[in-house]
Every structure is written in structure tokens, then in C-alpha cells.
Amino acid sequence: MSAPAPQRDLLPGTPPGRGHRRWRRILIGAGVAALLLVSVAVVTGSLIVRRFDHAVSRATLLEPGTRVQTPLVAAHAPVAGPLNFLLLGSDYRVEDPSNGQRSDTIIVAHVTRDMDHVYLVSIPRDLLVHIPAVPDLDFPGDYTKINAAFQFGHGGVGGSQLVSATVTSLTGVHFDGAVALDFSGLLRVVDLLGGVTICVDTPVVSIHTSRVFDVGCQRMSSADVLDYLRQRDFPDGDFTRQRHQQHFLKSVLDEVLAAGTLTNPVRLDTLLQAVAGAMTLDLGTTTLPDLIFALSGLRSDDLVGLKVPSYVQMIGDTSYVIADDSAAGLWRALRDDSLAGWAAANPDWVNKI
After folding, report:
1. I want to staple 85 with a disulfide (CB 3.0 to 4.6 A). Which of 69, 109, 167, 186 is the partner?
2. How far is Cα 118 from Cα 108, in angstroms, rounded to an integer?
3. Which residues of 109-144 are buried (b: 16+ CB within 10 A; e: fewer)?
4. End-to-end CA distance of the chain
5. Which residues are registered as beta bridge partners of 94?
6. pLDDT single digits (tens) 202-222
7. Closest Cα partner for 183 from 218, 226, 154, 147?
8. Which of 267, 324, 199, 248 is nearest to 87 (CA)?
9. What is the distance between the alpha carbons of residues 8 and 14, in angstroms, rounded to a whole number?
10. Phi, psi at residue 55, to the nearest 5°?
């Protein structure tokens, strides 16, 4: 008859059976503690997201005909790609408010079906387009620069809706939502981050302050960023300014992730409150918390900047940007969720951000 197997994993002097029970209690206790920590993190994160959700201004930024028509789904159903969002930034002239507002920044943000990349397609502010008529505003429509649509729509909600109608008419793309950004408000975020690192790719001499931005990566304060982003006098027309805007958005995201903000509830809450004050949102029936959860896996390296194939042309005494024939392929790729293939086939129109 074989000898009984020796007892294992017992502390010295512990009667058989008691050691196993003690380790089991320890492991169960550790598991409960870990579960509590995860629960606290989830609850804290949920509270922060809810505070952010409540702080963001809402408005109907999209003209009804430009919105994606989706079938009714259950409340809080997972957000699925592909998605298209219209990002608008206004260059309200504080020093000369009588000069009105124009949509200084127009970006179509395309989230791929797999929710693993975001393509930022910057629409040139001087792009010659047809701006649709708005009978309720006694606006008959016009062929002119796209950034005039905001002013023709009387600014605010009307201006944003007319920009959305113009972009949909141009591209055939319908939108899942829209965001109006106040870039001056985003500078508050830069202050909270203690600055951002911007990699200057071409020498820039400010027409406002005479500051020279040399080539290379450098730390910029909010005042530096504002000066840098306001520069428009470049040999390639508007493309350099578009690239700077795309790079700025990526740099802010880099800074947030690098600074450990996501793991610091107090810092994250302060930052998100600042972001909330700089944006107005239109998500239709989608909730902001659901969208944040769906996009939570994205990182700054997942952003890809694209340019609209176009060229500059003088018409009379005015300089316009004219979309060339290959722009139709970009619009088709936006609609078909095939921008990865389009970017690979058209590397000259991809921004390095």
C-alpha cells in the first residue's frame, strides 16, 4: 500500500486543512479588494463622464437633410462604425466683431467601421462651392468660398446648418453628429496641460508678433499656439494651416495621454470641464457617454490627416481653391469607408501629423 501524499502549501506548524482555508480566504479577500478598486474606478469614471455630458452645450448644428437616417435601436445600444462627424471652428474676430464670423475650420472626421482609426479631412476655407439656398433666410444660394456659408446662415445654429448642407452637397456624406469648437476655448486646455509640444515642419514668421517658429519640436504655451495657428500666409495656400490645426488636435491628445490625466480623476475632471466650455455638440439620438465608450480605444497615432485634392486659381481679383477631378475619389472613399486604400494610393494628399 503506497504512502499518503505529503501535504503541500502549508505554513510550518499549521494543522492539515487550515492552511488551505487561510490561503483561500486571502485570495478571496484580494479578489474582493481588486473588484472594489475596479468598481470605484468605473463609478468615478462614470461620474466624470456624466459631469462632462451635463456641461457640454447642445444645439441642432446639422441641417435635417444632412443627418444619417438610422433605424430605431434600443437605448444605449453600442455605437457602431463607420461614423462621420462635422467639426466646425469659428474665427470670431474679437478685435473687429462687425466683420462677422466665418467657419475658419471645417473638418470631416471619419471613424472607420472597426473604430480603430479616425481620418481628419480638412476642407479648404477658400474652396469654391455652391452654397444652397435658404428661403427662410431670404438667401438665394451662391457660388463662393465655403467659409462664407456660416455668415450667410446668420452664424450660430443657422450658420452651422448651412455649412453642413454645403458639405453634404459637395461630398454626398451624411453625418452622425457635429461639433462646434471654440479654438480660443481649447487654449484653456493647453494652459491646464502646462503647454503642448508642437513639431514645426516649416519655418513660420508670425505676421502678428514677428515671432519666428523654427523647425523642430518645441513646447508652446497657449499664447504661442494661438499665434502659430493664426498664420495663413503660406506658399501652398491653406494646406499648411490645415496641417497645423490637425497637428494641434493630435498634440493635445498626445499630451493628455502622456501626462497621465486619464488616471487622475481630479485632473481629468478639470480638463474635461475646460473642453466642455469650448464646444457645442449635436449627436442626434446618440448619447455622449456611449460615444466616449465606443471611442475609448483610440490613441493619437490612430489619427490620419488628409487634404482635399485641389489647386489655387485667381478668378477676377479673388483667389479661390478649386477641387480637382481626383477629389471625387476622396468623397467616394468617405462614403464607402475606404479611406485607408485612398490614402495609400494618394500619399501626396496625406498630412504627416
Report:
1. 109
2. 10
3. bbbbeebebbbbbbbbbbbbbebbebeeeebeeeeb
4. 75
5. none
6. 889 998 899 999 999 999 998
7. 226
8. 248
9. 11
10. -85, -20
> Can you point out the beta strands (E) in the chain?
57-58, 83-90, 103-111, 118-122, 128-131, 142-145, 177-181, 196-200, 204-205, 212-213, 216-220, 279-282, 303-307, 310-315, 318-323, 350-351
Residue 39, SS3 per DSSP: helix
Residue 334: partners with Cβ closer than 8 Å, 6 or more residues away: 84, 108, 110, 119, 121, 171, 173
Nearest to 185 by CA among 60, 258, 280: 280
**pLDDT in the model for residue 255:** 80
Amino acid at 317: D
Q: What is the CATH number of domain 59-69+77-351?
A: 3.40.630.190
Domains of the chain: which residue ranges?
A: 19-55, 59-69+77-351
Q: What is the DSSP letter of 328?
A: H
Q: How far is CA 98 from CA 92, 93, 151, 260, 311, in A?
A: 10, 8, 12, 43, 31
The partner residues of 134 in beta bridges, in order of sequence, read 139
Per-residue model confidence as pLDDT tens digits over 253-312 = 788 777 677 777 888 888 888 888 888 999 988 888 888 888 888 888 888 999 999 999
Across 216-235, b (16+ Cβ under 10 Å) vs e yields eeeebebebbbbbbbbeeee
H helical segments located in 145-235: 149-152, 156-171, 183-193, 222-229
User: Could you say which DSSP state residue 156 is in?
Assistant: H
